[in-house]
Each structure stands twice: as structure tokens, then as C-alpha cells.
Write a structure and sequence with these properties.
The chain has 21 helices and 19 strands. With about 625 residues, it is of the alpha/beta class. Among the domains are: about 230 residues, 3-Layer(aba) Sandwich (Rossmann fold); about 160 residues, 2-Layer Sandwich (Transcription Regulator spoIIAA). The strands form six sheets. It has a six-stranded mixed sheet, with helices on one face. α10 links the parallel β13 and β14. α14 runs parallel beside α15. The longest helix has 22 residues. The N and C termini lie far apart (about 55 Å). Bound molecules: iron/sulfur cluster.
Length: about 625
């Protein structure tokens, strides 16, 4: 059912109608009737945020390269649009051909962040189906999820038929192909979806929650999560591509401003710095780099296909790429004459990075961003953030000394073993950086300080930790407010209001799904957006479910406690994570494994043969 008619009227009434129109340059519109398999990929946040998600673009490109598959995009409608569609009785639709979600064979939802979870339920419900997998009709699409949230799928288990664990480049295509085969079987009477799910569970990297049972101790702790049939794998090993395939280059060019309004080129995947708070550092291992030639070729194609005036070299730690200087030099030679600027996010805090930034800087030197994350050397060693005070001050010298006016510094409070003195050390360190700035740039020097609250995440050395308590958090933010009342310093901190919710959803078990569903029924939407967040809906939902966010967010776990994500295998050994936790307590850093393998286990657990992984 195409729903063009009443839509124009609604689009005239809502905020940013460009979010809902589609038709952008490089969007792929295939013939609906003649294309056998139809996939909708959905992102649980607004268009302008979802359009900047590289993962979705990669899968969109791979699926649409297949002649027998069409792939269309869906983003979470903002509150006004949801209200209008519901009032008009119109379903949420895809941007390419405006088909309702129930017209698709497969609906895939990316789960990038816990505070987007309620939006995933809105997408399914407004798309014409029950958000609860158990309540969906046989004719409803297969509903799948992926992305970093899938590494602890349990809180969202009730809403999805299956999860793709790990990288989707190969796994998603295999799954869609298996589905196409199953669908072809429909001619002879479609076997029940349960049969398909059983087959899918054997594909590798596919987690089908309905094929596992969660058991609990009397005190409410999880006892174990076990398969309900012998042919179902006890642990689901994440999928990884041994070598990065060519990146998408015909990127969609949006009509409205998006968060990352530039061409995005992934130069490597994974990071081996091993910061102990960082989930990306473990779930995206091993490191695989693109070569200089691959990067330059892709950049040429991308700029030609999009007309973008800026290209961003994305990765978790760009300055770690083994050929980064050659990459930057080659691109600067090509982009400079075209008036295209190059941005290098996520630089290590060292003079080398400033030199790199120099190489790409063509216009006025605005700002450089670094993430020391902790103020004292003891705490940086404890969290394994390999930046010394000398590194940071040398970086400031290099930056302010070569004409930069502003440095942005990221810190976190609430990390394991942190003391008030460690937080005071943040203010002391910032004052030293400002002093360097003053010496070189006088009153023009500025240091922006952004502070977030540390949230323990699954599959990290800190997965057993408790979230910091409110009183300690308030006291430490007060220390910073007082300590950073300094000329030339801009201080901002993330409102900790949603931190406990994020912590509880990130390490929740299957029962938390009931809370998410109830909060959504009570109106929770866009929980990451301060003005949309509805704490009262969540408080009611926890009460109604007889559960507490404190149990999930603020309770330390013992080493032998079963964790809701224990049956999801990322290749990194649990013993390695515990060992890193212990090294944190001893404030002992672990070297970057580019300098030599430190035994996380990925090279033994994952099929990396013939690829470009940096593991021995
Ligand atoms: S296996 Fe060794 S080299 Fe590979 S990511 Fe793990 S620690 Fe690093």
C-alpha cells in the first residue's frame, strides 16, 4: 500500500519535513514488483542522526548491489510526526518507495545505544506490527537487530526474531539469502517461521532468543542462559570479516543538515589501545586496516559521487593506522586543489597527531580534540589510557605553538578506583594546558572541557563494576565546577539524569524487556534527548515490573556470577577481561598489542585466515 495521498498534508505540519521525504541523491529506488526480496533497514533515532551512521550505509550498499534484493531506509519519526501518523491512521514508511514496514520481508533495526531502545518499539508498532515478537502474525516480516546493542541482546530479546552478532557485511547477506530460499519454498506451503529461525541459528553469528531459556537464582541473579535444543549453539560467536570489503562510495547526500554532513571513509576497523572502559576496543577487534591505495581510490569515487566538500577519515584511533602519514599526504594532495577539507576525528593526544592535523588543515585553525579521560597518571594507568601528562602538555605546545586557538578535552568521572584527588587532578591538568595556550596565543587560547559519567559496559574489563553513586557523582562534579572556574576554560558535563537508566539497560537481562515495553507504553521516547526524556514513565515501568535499575546498574558482580551476555562470544576471553580488571586495581597499564600480542584470544577464536587482521 503506497500512502502518498495524505502525507503531503502531514509534512506541511511537522518539524523538518525533509526527514520524511526521501528522494536524495544516490538513494537507491528499485522496482518494487519485480524485486523478489525486500529489506527495510531502520535506525532508532532521527533522520539527521541516522543518516550519519556508517554501519547502516555499508549494509544498504551491500544489499542494494544484489539484483534480487531491494533495501530501503526508515528512521524514527520525531514526536510530532508519530502523533500525526497515528492520528491519520497511516503507517511508518520507507523513504525510497514509501512502503509500510509490513510490506517488507525483513525489517532490520540497528541498536547503537541503549537510550534509543524505546524508539525501536515505536518503529515496529507504527510500522504496523506488534513490537513483541511473540505477538506478531505469521505474515509479519522477519524482524532482526544488529549493532553494538546486540552484544547484550537480552534486554531487547522480546522484540526481535533474531540478532546478527558482529559485522553484517557477510552475515546479513547470508541471512537474506537463506530467507529468500525459505520464501521461495512458500510456493509449496511456507514452513513455519520457527523452522527458518532454527536454520538461521546455525548460520554462525546469529542469535535467536526464542531458542534459549534464561534461568534465575532465588535472589534474582541470572543463573544461566541455555539453548533449548541440542542443535542450537550454546555460545554465539560474533561474525567478523577477515579483510574489510571496499567501502560504500555512492553515499546518500541528504537535503537537510545531518550530524556528520560530510563524506565518511572508514580507514581501519578495531583498536588495540585497550582502554579498559571502552566497549568498542573489545567488540571490534581485531584491527584491520585499509591500504593507502584503497583509501585514495575510495575517496576519489566518494567525492565524485557526492560532491561533498569535506571527507572524514573515520576509525576508533586514526593516528594508529600504520600508514596514516602516507594516507593524509596522498589525500591532501588530491583534496587541496579541489577545495575539499579532510577531518581526522579521534586523534591520540601526542605531537604526531598535531603534525597530522597540520597536514590536513587548509583553512583557519579552529580546534583539536583529545580524550585523556582521567586527570591523574595513576587513574590513566588504571583505565589503561596511554597518555601521560607530558604527552598532553607537549601536544598543547605543538597545537598552540603552531597557531591553534582551541583544544577540546574529554574526561570521565565515576571510573573504577577513582578518588576525589583524581578528579581534582583534572582541574590541575587543564590549568597547565591553559597556561601553555596563554603563553602562545594569549587571550585567544581556549580549552573546552567535556565531562561524561562512566557507564560500565558488557564485554569490557569493567563489566563487573557498579555505576558510581549519585552522591559521589554530585560531589565530584562540584569539585570540577569549582576547579574549572578559570579564564579560557569552557566546562560542560553530560546531565547524569539518564546514566542509571543507560547502565541498567546496558547490563540488563531478559526481564528488563518488560520494563522497556512498559516505559514505551507509558510514552517513553527519545530517552537520549534531554527534553524528551520521561523519567516518570521509567520509574513507573520499573515498579510495574517489580524490578529496580539499581539491581542492574549499581550492583557489582562477582567473578563467577553468570552475566546476561555470557552466551555471546566476541572472541576476547573472559579471563583476559578479568585479568585487565585486576591490572586496573594495580594501576598497571597493558601495552598496545600492535607492539606485541597480549593474549586477548581473538586470534584463536575468530576465523581471520587470509585476512588483514594485525594479530599474529
Ligand atoms: S589476539 Fe593479540 S594481537 Fe590480536 S587483538 Fe588480541 S591481543 Fe591484539
Amino acid at each position: 500500500m503506497s500512502i502518498v495521498s495524505d502525507l503531503e498534508a502531514i509534512l506541511r505540519e511537522v518539524e523538518k519535513p525533509g526527514r520524511y521525504t526521501g528522494g536524495e541523491w544516490n538513494s537507491v529506488v528499485k522496482d518494487w514488483e519485480s524485486t523478489p526480496v525486500k529489506v527495510a533497514l531502520a535506525y532508532p533515532d532521527t533522520y539527521e542522526i541516522g543518516m550519519s551512521n556508517l554501519g547502516l550505509m555499508i549494509l544498504y550498499d551491500i544489499l542494494n548491489r544484489q539484483p534480487d534484493i531491494l533495501c530501503e531506509r526508515v528512521y524514527a519519526p520525531w514526536l510530532d510526526m508519530e502523533e500525526r501518523l497515528r492520528r491519520a491512521g497511516l503507517p511508518l514508511y520507507s523513504l525510497e518507495t514509501r512502503h509500510a514496514l509490513t510490506d517488507f520481508d525483513i525489517v532490520g533495526v540497528s541498536l547503537p545505544y541503549e537510550l534509543n531502545y524505546t524508539n525501536a518499539l515505536t518503529i515496529l508498532s507504527l510500522g504496523g506490527m506488534s513490537p513483541l515478537a511473540a505477538e506478531r502474525r505469521p505474515e509479519d516480516p522477519l524482524v532482526i537487530a544488529g549493532g553494538s546493542g546486540a552484544y547484550n541482546p537480552e534486554p531487547m530479546a522480546a522484540f526481535f526474531d533474531l540478532f546478527v552478532i558482529g559485522e553484517g557485511e557477510e552475515a546479513l547477506l547470508e541471512l537474506v539469502r537463506l530467507y529468500a530460499e525459505w520464501k521461495r519454498g512458500a510456493a509449496f506451503g511456507r514452513p513455519p517461521k520457527a523452522d527458518f529461525l532454527r536454520q538461521a541459528a546455525r548460520l554462525g553469528g546469529i542469535y535467536v532468543p526464542s531458542l534459549y531459556a534464561a534461568e534465575y537464582h532465588a535472589d534474582g541473579r541470572l543463573a544461566r542462559t541455555v539453548p533449548i535444543a541440542p542443535d542450537v549453539p550454546a555460545r554465539v560467536v560474533k561474525r567478523v570479516v577477515p579483510a574489510l570489503p571496499p567501502p560504500p562510495t555512492r553515499l546518500i547526500v541528504p537535503y537537510i543538515e545531518t550530524v556528520h554532513d560530510r563524506a565518511m571513509l572508514e580507514i581501519q576497523r578495531g583498536c588495540t589501545q585497550g582502554c579498559r572502559f571502552c566497549q568498542a576496543s573489545t567488540i571490534y577487534r581485531p584491527v584491520r586496516e585499509r591500504t593507502v591505495d584503497e583509501i585514495v581510490r575510495a575517496a576519489d569515487e566518494m567525492l565524485l559521487a557526492t560532491g561533498h566538500e569535506e571527507i572524514s577519515l573515520v576509525s576508533l584511533s586514526s593516528s594508529d593506522h600504520s600508514q596514516i602519514e602516507d594516507v593524509v599526504r596522498a589525500l591532501a594532495e588530491r583534496c587541496g586543489p579541489l577545495g575539499v577539507s579532510i577531518s581526522l576525528p579521534s586523534l591520540r593526544a601526542d605531537a604526531f597527531s598535531v603534525r597530522l592535523a597540520e597536514m590536513v588543515q587548509t583553512t583557519r585553525k579552529t580546534g583539536l580534540t583529545f580524550a585523556p579521560e582521567a586527570g591523574s597518571q595513576r587513574l590513566r594507568d588504571a583505565i589503561n589510557k596511554k597518555v601521560s601528562e607530558e604527552d598532553l602538555l607537549r601536544t598543547a605546545e605543538a597545537a598552540f605553538g603552531t597557531g591553534w586557538d582551541r583544544i577540546k578535552l574529554y574526561f570521565m568521572v565515576g571510573q573504577p578506583t577513582e578518588t576525589d584527588e583524581d578528579v581534582e587532578a583534572i582541574a590541575d591538568l587543564v590549568k597547565k594546558v591553559v597556561a601553555v595556550g596563554r603563553r602562545h596565543r594569549g587571550g585567544r587560547a581556549e580549552v573546552s572541557v567535556s565531562v561524561a559519567t562512566f557507564v560500565p559496559k558488557p564485554h569490557t574489563p569493567f563489566q563487573w563494576e557498579a555505576l558510581v553513586d549519585d552522591e559521589t557523582l554530585r560531589r565530584r562534579l562540584d569539585i570540577l565546577r569549582r576547579g574549572l572556574r578559570v579564564k579560557g576554560v569552557r566546562f560542560s558535563w553530560h546531565d547524569p539524569g539518564t546514566t542509571l537508566l543507560e547502565a541498567a539497560l546496558s547490563r540488563g537481562d531478559r526481564r528488563v524487556g518488560e520494563v522497556i515495553h512498559r516505559a514505551w507504553q507509558l510514552g517513553a521516547r527519545f530517552d537520549a534527548w534531554g527534553d524528551a526524556y520521561r523519567p516518570e514513565a521509567w520509574e513507573q515501568a520499573w515498579r510495574d515490573a517489580g524490578l529496580s535499575p539499581e539491581f542492574y546498574g549499581r550492583r557489582p558482580r562477582s567473578r563467577d556470577e553468570a552475566l546476561p551476555w555470557d552466551h555471546i562470544d566476541i572472541g576476547v576471553r573472559k579471563e583476559f577481561l578479568w585479568r585487565e580488571r585486576e591490572r586496573c586495581r594495580a594501576a598497571t597499564p597493558t601495552p598496545d598489542c600492535r607492539e606485541g600480542c597480549v593474549g586477548c584470544g581473538v586470534n584463536a577464536a575468530l576465523p581471520l585466515a587470509g585476512g588483514t587482521a594485525l594479530c599474529p
